[in-house]
Amino acid sequence: MLSLYTGRCAMMTPMKSPAGTPMTNEPLTYALIEKKIEKYARDVSDEKLGALERRAALASVGLLVSVCTAAPFVKSSVALLVLQMGIWLSVIAMLIGFVCMLRREWRTFYRRHDKLSRELDRDYDRWQVLVKEMRGFPIAELARRLRYLSARKSSLAYRTGLFTGSLQRLGVLPLLAILYLQFKDWRFGDWQAFGQVHMVGGLLLWALFLAYFLSWWLVGLGGRWDAYEALLIEATHDE
After folding, report:
1. Cβ atoms within 10 Å of 16's Cβ, excluding its own
2. Residue 237 and residue 239: Cα distance in Å, rounded?
3. Interatomic CA distance for residues 45 and 38, integer angstroms
4. Between the CA of residue 108 and those of 65, 86, 101, what are the distances in Å?
5. Which of 35, 99, 122, 175 is the most buried (most CB within 10 A)?
């Protein structure tokens, strides 16, 4: 009777991982990892963009791309006037977005070290909560998921590296350099110069913008893979 009672008590006691975290019956999937990482990213994200700042950024980019695309087709004075209005509206939208950004991030410039240390403490605490949740899964399954992810990540880094190159290190500099070469001889008020951009050059410039944004999207995708790997490594680490 004593052994039967002991067995029942053992069945009622929740199983724990080697780290002492209660085991979960939920299956471990990459979709679940993504959900947890997404929740963590929302919790530790900085102040969100305001509606005005977001609309100003979208308007600025949209107008700039539209101007670069329409420039080769400018043949009349009316079309040139519309092009000038688009450029001025794009500049105004940039200035509005810049002012909104300064209002939102002024504490970062004023007390940058204090803000950074507070954010690190906040992010670390929430990261430890996330790691503790992940340690509720079997250590063998976590290790298998980690090995598979590392192998896929190496293959992804090789393939995307052919397209993105050193974009992480150079940032926006290549785009600014190409724009400088395109408009280095332009003088303020010489709006007729936009009508002299041939169609092939305009299409190539537009394709460059699209390729640049696609490259940054691939860089963000690689960053999410790094987050998966870091979480699995920390969850499988035996303290």
Report:
1. 12
2. 6
3. 10
4. 31, 33, 11
5. 175
Letter for the amino acid at 9? C
Give the number of other CB atoms < 10 A from CB of residue 2.
6
Which tokens in the block code for residue 196?
A: 């002299």
Residue of higher predicted confidence among 81 and 38: 38
Q: Which residues contact 96 (CB under 8 A, 6 or more apart)?
A: 52, 53, 56
Residue ranges per structural domain of the chain: 28-36+49-133+140-236
Q: How does DSSP classify residue 29?
A: -
Q: Could you tell me the pLDDT band of residue 25, with boundaries at 50, 70 and 90?
A: confident
Concatenated DSSP letters of 163-206: HHTTHHHHTTHHHHHHHHHHHTT--TT-GGGGGGS-HHHHHHHH
Torsion of CA 121, 122, 124, 130, to 10 degrees: 160
How many Å apart are CA 116 and CA 60, to the nearest integer?
Answer: 30
Contacts 24+ apart (CB under 8 A), 11-17: 17/135, 17/136, 17/137, 17/138, 17/139
Instruction: Give the pLDDT score at 228.
Output: 92
Whole-prediction pTM:
0.62
pLDDT at 66 (0 to 100): 78
Look at the chain and count its residues: 239
Contact 203, 77 (CB under 8 A): no
